[in-house]
Every structure is written in structure tokens, then in C-alpha cells.
Specification:
312 residues, mainly alpha, 13 helices, 0% strand
């Protein structure tokens, strides 16, 4: 049984999918910049493991009532929940953090731009759902905007951004996460808190053997101020808040309509560099932002038209 988007959760923002997706992109962009900042200081798998253990423990008291109510559904759909946890929680995050050990945050943000195309590919392969012409055009326009920002409006700069081991790991992680986004439509009709708590807990369990291996290899967490601050952010921002927002948005509008908003991650990442790293605002930022916003608007409008046509 699939979750139905008709159920209101009594919170206005939770029924505003495009605001939810914008907030998700911001929180995940910060996560990428932060993941690169602490590369070499915090072991990647341990970071992912402690992130999900901590996020689960924070959420558990609030989710317990829903979990108790949803236990029959959790038992019935156990392996589907494990699959969702393995793809959307364990693999994606550990592989992304590992990749950020070997590549710049700029590259990490750039490769996020392939995510909407990967989601579209998985939804076609799994469910034979095709993008409309407007959705495809919107994704491509926003992709051009992202590339424009990151290349500083210079094709030669873009051509010299060469992929390395870290980029390969992050792209591989995105392939897996796109699969998660595509199969979210098959999620059991658990409450939003119980669903997130369950897949986070399962994801932590799946990561535990790899975290132990990392510890055995001598990569140890040192609980200084940087580590503690990083852990607190990743437990709450990109974990609890962002995943609640993303899961709900996909529930409301579907994976293909949600995916173009992932192009906001490089946009936010660039803005963060301007605000906190002292980089200067340039003409290509405004040009790129305009293209991204235009692409998202076109893809969103096309998705709404398609939905109305199907209903009609």
C-alpha cells in the first residue's frame, strides 16, 4: 500500500511541497560544504553512522506513538523499509562523505546537477513514467544555470573541472539516492515520523559494521568542538528536517516534479561561499540563478499541467 498525499498533517508548511523542497536543498547544500570542510578530520562512515544514530534518538520520543500504531505495517513491509534505508540513508550518505574526502566542495555541488536526470531515468525504468517535454526542458534549463554559476560563465573553466575518485563516489551515491527517490512512491502508509525514524534506525544498523571496520583501521572520532558542532548539525538539519521535508514533498508531487529543486543545491552552495568565505558576487551568479529559477518554474508548471490533464 502506498502513502496518499491527501492526508493533512495540520501544519501549513507540510502541505507546501515547493517550499519544503527549497528548504531541503538549502540544508543539503550546507551539508556538502560542511562535509568538505571537515574532510580528514571526521571519518566519513563514522560521521554517517553517528549522524543517523543521533537523529534516530532525537526523533524517537516524538515518533513513538506513530511507531506503536504502525507496527503491523512495519512488519508487513520490513524488507521494503530496509531497501529504502539502505539506499536513501546508509549508502548515499556514507558514500557522499567518503567522496568529499577526495574532491572539492565545488565539484561535489556540481555533480548534484545530474540528480534530476537520474531520478527521471529510474522512474522510467521502474514505472515507465516519462517526463513531459516541459519537465525535460525545465530540468535542462536549470542544469545550464547551475553549470553557468560553477564555471563562472566561462566554458574553459567548466571543461577543466576534471572528475576524480571523489566525484565518482558522489555520482555513484546519487545513482543510489535517485533510486530511493523513485521508489518512495511505494513506501508504506506509515506516519511521517514513524517512517523516518524506522528508515534512519535501519540505516544506522546497516552502517554499523562499516563504522566498526573504520574504527579497526584506526580512523577514530575525536570529540572536539568542530566534531561536536558538525554532528549536531548533520543530526538535525540535513537528517531530521530535510528528510521529513523531502519525503513529504515527493509524497505530494512525485519524484519527477520534486527532482528539479535539487538544482538549488549548487545555487545555495555558491551563495554560502559568497556569504561566509568572502567570495565576490559576479554577473554570472545572477545569470545562473535566473536560469535555475526559470527551469524550476517551467518544470513545476509542466508537472501541474500534466497532473491536471491526467485528472481531466
Amino acid at each position: 500500500m502506498s502513502a496518499r498525499p491527501s492526508r493533512s498533517h495540520g501544519f501549513a508548511l507540510f502541505d507546501a511541497p515547493y517550499l519544503l523542497l527549497t528548504l531541503t536543498a538549502l540544508l543539503w547544500a550546507i551539508n556538502i560544504v560542511l562535509g568538505r570542510f571537515i574532510a580528514g578530520h571526521v571519518p566519513p562512515v563514522s560521521l554517517a553512522f553517528v549522524r543517523w544514530v543521533g537523529a534516530t534518538l532525537i526523533l524517537l520520543p516524538f515518533a513513538w506513538t506513530q511507531i506503536s500504531r504502525d507496527l503491523p505495517l512495519i512488519r508487513r513491509h520490513f524488507w521494503l523499509l530496509v531497501l529504502l534505508a539502505g539506499t536513501g540513508i546508509a549508502c548515499y550518505n556514507a558514500m557522499s562523505y567518503y567522496g568529499l574526502q577526495y574532491t572539492q566542495a565545488l565539484n561535489g555541488l556540481l555533480v548534484q546537477s545530474v540528480a534530476p536526470l537520474l531520478v527521471a531515468l529510474w522512474t522510467f525504468l521502474l514505472f515507465r513514467e516519462q517526463l513531459s517535454l516541459g519537465q525535460a526542458a525545465g530540468i535542462l534549463i536549470s542544469l545550464v544555470g547551475v553549470l553557468f554559476i560553477i564555471s563562472h560563465g566561462d566554458l574553459d573553466t567548466f571543461l577543466h573541472l576534471k572528475p576524480n575518485l571523489g566525484d565518482v563516489w558522489i555520482v555513484s551515491a546519487l545513482v543510489i539516492y535517485a533510486f530511493y527517490a523513485a521508489i518512495l512512491r511505494k513506501r508504506p502508509a506509515l506516519g511521517p515520523l514513524s517512517f523516518l525514524a524506522v528508515i534512519m534506525a535501519f540505516g544506522a544498523v546497516l552502517l554499523a559494521p562499516f563504522a566498526l571496520w573504520e574504527l579497526y583501521a584506526g580512523l577514530v572520532l575525536h570529540f572536539d568542538r568542530v566534531t561536536i558542532g558538525t554532528l549536531l548539525y548533520v543530526m538535525i538539519g540535513p537528517s531530521l528536517v530535510a528528510y521529513l521535508c523531502f519525503n513529504r514533498a515527493v509524497e505530494l508531487v512525485g519524484a519527477n516534479a520534486a527532482a528539479p529543486f535539487l538544482h538549488l543545491m549548487p545555487v545555495f552552495g555558491t551563495a554560502l561561499a559568497i556569504l561566509f568565505l568572502g567570495e565576490q558576487v559576479a554577473w554570472y551568479h545572477f545569470a545562473g540563478y535566473a536560469l535555475v529559477i526559470a527551469g524550476i518554474a517551467l518544470a513545476t508548471y509542466a508537472a501541474k499541467v500534466r497532473a491536471r490533464t491526467r485528472k481531466g
